[in-house]
TrEMBL record:
The keyword Zinc is assigned to this record: no
Annotated GO MF terms: 2 iron, 2 sulfur cluster binding; metal ion binding; oxidoreductase activity
Any single Pfam family the record assigns to this protein: Fer2_2
Keywords associated with the record: 2Fe-2S, Iron, Iron-sulfur, Metal-binding, Oxidoreductase
Higher taxonomy: Bacteria, Pseudomonadati, Pseudomonadota, Alphaproteobacteria, Sphingomonadales
Name of this chain's protein: Isoquinoline 1-oxidoreductase
Amino acid sequence: MAILTVNNQPIEIKLEADTPLLWALRDAANLTGTKYGCGTGECGACMVIVDGQAMPSCTLSLGEAEGRSVTTIEGLAADRNHPVQQAFVAEQAIQCGFCTPGLVMAAAALLAHNADPTEADIKAAITNICRCGVYPRLVRTIQRAGRIARGMEPGAPLPVPPTATTPGL
């Protein structure tokens, strides 16, 4: 059992301490945006932000996460309007979407520490694997997110989800 803060909410997870944080988030907390990719922390699909640092949740145990603050893709922005999310949409840097949550989380952690990263900064910080090959757009996307975060560029409008209508009204 572990007590930690996930997406600004204290939670208690009743799993073994050696359970990877990834599975605790997905199975016990029902936060399925964090994806399983490789299980070794190399692909970045499971990236979350722990105490301000991007970390692969597949290699961090629940016991190691106890008492820490964890942010998942679901907790990045309640309205899906984080500058990184806006930039990914504006730059069309999403293909299949499987790696996207991990890329977004890694980029958000980078921008929280460096709001104006160079191409070299981005390539050093974003080591995630994308099998669709969105890499050419990543530098442009993350630099745009930095400009949005600094107020130098307006954010991209995000798609509005359809609303349910009641027949006959």
